[in-house]
Amino acid sequence: xxxxxxxxxxxxxxxxxxxxxxxxxxxxxxxxxxxxxxxxxxxxxxxxxxxxxxxxxxxxxxxxxxxxxxxxxxxxxxxxxxxxxxxxxxxxxxxxxxxxxxxxxxxxxxxxxxxxxxxxxxxxxxxxxxxxxxxxxxxxxxxxxxxxxxxxxxxxxxxxxxxxxxxxxxxxxxxxxxxxxxxxxxxxxxxxxxxxxxxxxxxxxxxxxxxxxxxxxxxxxxxxxxxxxxxxxxxxxxxxxxxxxxxxxxxxxxxxxxxxxxxxxxxxxxxxxxxxxxxxxxxxxxxxxxxxxxxxxxxxxxxxxxxxxxxxxxxxxxxxxxxxxxxxxxxxxxxxxxxxxxxxxxxxxxxxxxxxxxxxxxxxxxxxxxxxxxxxxxxxxxxxxxxxxxxxxxxxxxxxxxxxxxxxxxxxxxxxxxxxxxxxxxxxxxxxxxxxxxxxxxxxxxxxxxxxxxxxxxxxxxxxxxxxxxxxxxxxxxxxxxxxxxxxxxxxxxxxxxxxxxxxxxxxxxxxxxxxxxxxxxxxxx
Amino acid sequence: xxxxxxxxxxxxxxxxxxxxxxxxxxxxxxxxxxxxxxxxxxxxxxxxxxxxxxxxxxxxxxxxxxxxxxxxxxxxxxxxxxxxxxxxxxxxxxxxxxxxxxxxxxxxxxxxxxxxxxxxxxxxxxxxxxxxxxxxxxxxxxxxxxxxxxxxxxxxxxxxxxxxxxxxxxxxxxxxxxxxxxxxxxxxxxxxxxxxxxxxxxxxxxxxxxxxxxxxxxxxxxxxxxxxxxxxxxxxxxxxxxxxxxxxxxxxxxxxxxxxxxxxxxxxxxxxxxxxxxxxxxxxxxxxxxxxxxxxxxxxxxxxxxxxxxxxxxxxxxxxxxxxxxxxxxxxxxxxxxxxxxxxxxxxxxxxxxxxxxxxxxxxxxxxxxxxxxxxxxxxxxxxxxxxxxxxxxxxxxxxxxxxxxxxxxxxxxxxxxxxxxxxxxxxxxxxxxxxxxxxxxxxxxxxxxxxxxxxxxxxxxxxxxxxxxxxxxxxxxxxxxxxxxxxxxxxxxxxxxxxxxxxxxxxxxxxxxxxxxxxxxxxxx
Lengths: 526, 526
Prior knowledge:
Two copies of one chain form a homodimer. Chain A is of the alpha/beta class. The first copy, chain A, folds into four domains: 3-57, no CATH class; 67-106 and 407-524, Alpha-Beta Complex (Aspartate Aminotransferase, domain 1); 109-153, Orthogonal Bundle (Helix Hairpins), CATH 1.10.287; 154-392, Aspartate Aminotransferase, domain 2 (3-Layer(aba) Sandwich). Chain A is built from 19 helices and 14 strands. A seven-stranded mixed β-sheet of chain A has the order 2-8-7-6-5-3-4, with helices on both faces. In chain A, helix 11 links the parallel strand 5 and strand 6 (298-302). The longest helix of chain A has 28 residues, at 402-429. Chain A is globular. Chain A starts with 13 loop residues before the first helix and ends with a helix. At the A-B interface, helix 2, helix 3, helix 5, helix 8 and helix 9 of A face helix 3, helix 5, helix 8, helix 9 and strand 5 of B.
């Protein structure tokens, strides 16, 4: 086998290969591509390029970047492997504070959600005495709504009808305004729903391409999806000096500028903010809705952290609720898609990949097209739909699971609130680190000062300066956080995103280690 | 609220709206789009078009079609609703024979798979005496491989490492050739993996666009994905006269013709065939591999029905195995992606959305790009990964679950084999229906004669003739099957796809009813 490897071309470094392919393509013109290739005999003596290579692959995919699981995480996994192999390191474990993955950080699942889903998967267990009756009732009700009474059957493509109804009722209770099951589309996590809605919205070529306004800093799913769909990313900057607030003046600036080179049609909002942790005021949401109305923008409201609000005086207001409270003409005209998920909140059930989008004021024909589009992938995972149902339809006072459910939920949320404050306190004691209050969501996004020599050194190595910092941090302390450059930030500023999810005492140690490392790093490069 | 609806534009019929938008766009040119719109006061007096409409949406999405869940299924759901409401119909229930959804048709889940997954979801149940020890061991082993020992944590984006290893070992046992865990990417059902691989492969514009060869008839995921990705669908026809065999001469014809207007780079094979039910001979697979080698095509082998082979003399040969047995240069050069799923086979666990792709001879840089691309969606659903593991790592002789597992598996597979024969027998007794042997997979795809007057009538109504037939069948009998036009077929021939999944006695009645309806329909339109 080894000798035959010689048949395959030596790989060129990616950049050279791409340049070579581009040159070859230019020479070839838009013709029918390479003709038939000689058979095995002829090929044996010479190199042969693979059909699919970095040079020939879909350029839109090549442009995709996703920092949350980018090179720093690859290195973290390598370090873990090295630790297991006994390679000596200045730390004993890698702490992956790069991602909002509550259970990976030791948070325990909410018992009720797991009981209901386990019973649906294995109905034989419905006879076990140890499981409370309300969990069994929920499981029976959900199984009755599954085709063939099995979680192994496909559901309807937009989700199990019963679950869509339960989600609609949950939204009504939350907002005090009507919600229709036919406007609710269940999904494989919120990411899936966000990409699907964006997919409907983008069109055009050249200067006619759809522009999508996203906050900077943003959650990089947005930039990745925009790149993949060959749409135009239009940045509006959140105001770090004012707790990452969204300012409509800045929206206006970004929009006016974008109109010179694309057709902005979509405005994405993340509230509570990821990675920035701000919670938008009701006034701000009103202003954004009015802006979207005036400028004819489709609103996408990423509200997956709606249960994660910690700061005193902050409260979650859904875009849907504010839209309806604004009254006419807004509530009849502004097109809105609002996203939610079971991966965050108090549940943290990321592994199930379950979420939903509610569409408001969306053209009925477009809703049909949406139904068609999701049907190609058949349906969202049914176990996740089941957990979602248990989330939106939780135990009620008087039911056997109620006390335990509420206690577990409150324990998670109050621990998170405590850790949000702790993070802000410890970081703000460190010189050269400045951290806005973590009003909500699951991350801090502190700004760090980096000495000019570190910035030069990073640039010499072709790295973003905060990537340089984060990689050194990882190598020396085992702490894995994501550089701000992966989310976007104002030129010349540096940040990182770190989850507040580790257990309190571990988090305290992490924050201190991180602050100390920053001080050492600053000295080293000053 | 009612009066405010007047603010929204009346919806134009889709075709008119599209034409209007196209005209408006042409007039406007590729400029920056409409300028700012007057505020609420100004807008109140006049119509206003939504941002997102059938006319302005992504045209690639508009082109997508997916017959398996198309208009006929929408009508089937309506009929079910009407039945529930007591509307009198000439039937008492709707039989959805349109989709390969085993559990919906009453097939019972394999107990072991459900026990393992339920225990992983609710580890409290590990203490229950009623669950066998080997299921508990598997659950403990899987939980230990999950971050935080929870199925609610994200897994690595290509899947849990342990499961990838177990899949690689499963492939090695199946094929007798090496398989590497790093070449295995778990996915949200095979559909997800197929679309992801296609996404990497397509590029170019105009005559430089990527051509993708697909069989006709095909499973419409392929045509839908190709439309969505704006690639070029290149049809090669299976040979109905020879049991839907794949003929390399036909591949050659399709390729030569396609090279005039696109760059064909991908050859998709479905084996066993969907909707056509043929099982490819080893010789045919060899020929296809040699063809792909000679013509420099990337092979995509959809092998999700690999456990579903019923005909005597037929056997499943994986493309990977045949590729390696062909030896050099093929085995070192031909790029292959092979897909599998837990939705079919004896498991039928569609609702979990779990599958995998193994990539062979794929450029390491491309594998990296694939890793990056899947990371944006974070990970495949963990409950599905768990079931997949139990499928590829089933109970072994001597373990407590072994006997029951084997009995359940054999019961499903032998019932399917029986139903495959039954289908073919009953259809071939009916005049005007001709059905190839169902050698494998889960469907029959009989050819039906339709009287010229029915064809005219259908065309007058703007319907494909077999859609016309299937809709009438649904209205009169409650039987829902998918017209052949949804899969593609030779011009002037008509077919439908029907699953063989209903319980035997129900299937027998269905087949007879369908044959009788066809006879009646023929008389009516003759």
